Amino acid sequence: MSDVYSALDSRLQARAQGGHLRRLAIPDIGIDFLSNDYLGLARSDDFHRLVVADVLATPKLVAGSTGSRLISGQSQEAIDVESFIAQVHGNVSALLFSSGYLANLTLFSCLPQKDDTIIVDEYIHRSVHDGCLMSQATKWKFRHNDLEDLEARLRRVKGRCFIAIESVYSMEGDFAPLLEIAGLAARYDAALIVDEAHAFGVFGYGLVHRLGLQQRVFATLITYGKAMGGHGAAILCSEMVRSYLINFGSPFIYSTAMPDITWRCIRLGYQFLDSRPDLAIQLQQRIHLLRTQTLRLVAADTSPIQVLPLSGKARLLRLQEALSARGLQTYAVFAPTVREGTERLRICVHAFNTPDEIGLLAEGIAEGSLDTRV
Fold it and tell me: Which residues contact 22 (CB under 8 A, 6 or more apart)?
C-alpha cells in the first residue's frame, strides 16, 4: 500500500504548499460574521425552549430511525411534516432528506438519463456537480446569471434538458434572474431546478414561493441548516417526481433515515419563523447598515452574503487574521472553492449582529487592508 499512501501524501503536500489545506477545528465564533445562521435560530433561547418542551412531551422523538425510509425508517412524523411543508409552500408534495447535499446528489444522479442534458450555472453548488458525476447525462455550464449564454446552450440541446440554478448564490451573494430563467425553461421545454438554500427564511419561504413560480419550477430544494438554524432538507415537486426519487434515487434509498426529532424541529422551525417576521426585517436593516459603510462590497443590496474581493492569498489571510484578532469572525475564500485570482472575504450578516458590531467590522477592514475601501 506504500504507493497509495505516497500518492495521497503527494496530493496533500501540494495542497498545503498552495495554502489550500483544509483542517477541522472548533470555531471560536466571537462576533459572528461567519455562519449561515442568518436569523439567529441556532442561538435562540426562545426557539430552543420551544423544541425542548416538545421533546419532553414526546421523548420517543429522540430514538434512532433504525433503517432507511424504505425499510424501517418511515414514520408518521415524516409523513405529516412532508405534507405540511408541501402545503405551506404551495407545492403538491415534498420529500425530506438529511441534508441539502444529499438532496442534490439524489436529484441529479437519478433524474437526468443518458442522452439528456443538464445546463448548470457555473457557480452552482458542488453538490450539484457531484450529482451530475453520478449521472450518464451530459453536463454543460453557462456563464453566471448570463441569460444570453443560457439561451445559446438551450438552442443546442437535443432531447430532454434540465437547468440547475441557485436563487441566492453562496459565494457571490447575488440573485438568479428567476423570472427570466423560468421563461427560458418554458420556451425550450426544460425542467428548471432551483436550490433555495440561502433564500429560505431570509426571503419568506424562498424566492420561488415569493414570486409564485411553484408551477413553473420542476423541483425546488429547501434546506433547514441555515436560516432555520436546524438540519435537513426538502425537495418540493410533483407527486410523480417524488415517487421517482423514492424508486430510483440511490442516495435516498440507501441512507438511514434521520430520527423524528429532526423532522419535528423543522415543523417547529416553521412555526417559530411565522411568529417572528421581525427577524427577517431586522436582518435587512443590518444588511443595509453594512452596505452604507464605504467598503467595496460586490453582492446584491439585500443579500445576507456580502463579498469583499481581495485577490492574493497572503493579503486575504492577513485581513482575516487581523479581524479575528478583534474577535470578528469572517470567512476567507480561496481556490478551489473559487477560481484563482477571485479570492474574497465572505461576510455573513445576521439579524443578531448589532450596529456596533457592524461598525467594528467596517473599521477592522479599513485598518486591516486600506485598499478595500472605496
Answer: 15
Q: In what order do the strands lie in the sheet with 233-237?
A: 93-97, 233-237, 219-223, 191-195, 161-166, 117-121, 138-142
- Closest by Cα among 213, 266, 325 to 98: 266
Query: What CATH number does domain 27-42+277-372 carry, 3.90.1150.10, 3.30.1330.30, 3.40.50.300, 3.40.50.20?
Result: 3.90.1150.10
The CATH architecture assigned to 58-275 reads 3-Layer(aba) Sandwich (3.40)
Domain ranges of the chain: 27-42+277-372, 58-275
Question: Which grid cell is 315?
Answer: 493579503
Per DSSP, the chain holds a count of helices (H) and strands (E) of: 14, 12
Which triple of cell numbers denotes residue 7?
Answer: 500518492
Give the whole-angstrom CA distance, residue 66 versus residue 252: 15
SS3 sequence of 287-322: HHHHHCCCECCCCCCCCCEEEEECCCHHHHHHHHHH
Residue 28 confidence (pLDDT): 77
Predicted confidence (pLDDT) at residue 336 exceeds the cutoff of 90: no
Q: pLDDT digit string (tens) for 257-312?
A: 999 999 999 999 999 999 999 999 999 999 999 999 989 999 999 999 999 998 77
pTM exceeds 0.85, yes or no: yes
